[in-house]
Amino acid sequence: MKYFILSLALLLCGIVTHAQTSDQPKATDCRKFRNGTFKIVDEKLGNFTIVRKGDTQVETKEGDTGSIVFQVKWIDDCTYTLTPGETFRKKFPQIPSNAILTVNIIKTTANSYTQRSTANFTSFAIDSEMVKVR
Hints:
- The structure is a single chain.
- By secondary structure, this protein is an alpha+beta fold.
- Helix content is 24%, strand content 47%.
- It has an 8-stranded antiparallel β-barrel.
- It is globular.
């Protein structure tokens, strides 16, 4: 009986571990996107250029004047948060001052990744593709 319980526990641990990791991209696939210049092309939201270096991300929307600055904090190899800076708060005063955006890299290719962005002030989530241009 003792061996049966031990075998069952090991089997369950293996299933849980596989389920938790099988849908996640490999960590090494995400690391190459920590820094660089990226483009998002979206018919609904518009086209964006994103420059991420260290703990700073600067976003510029095509056709807009000025940029929005975020502070970047990496949670793990494929997840990071963006804390809006003063430029964001001025442009979007209706957004709470404690706003934090969470970005999960859910798929990678050689020069792009698909991200799912969520925020602590809404249940809305958006998926978009970031193409690394530099």
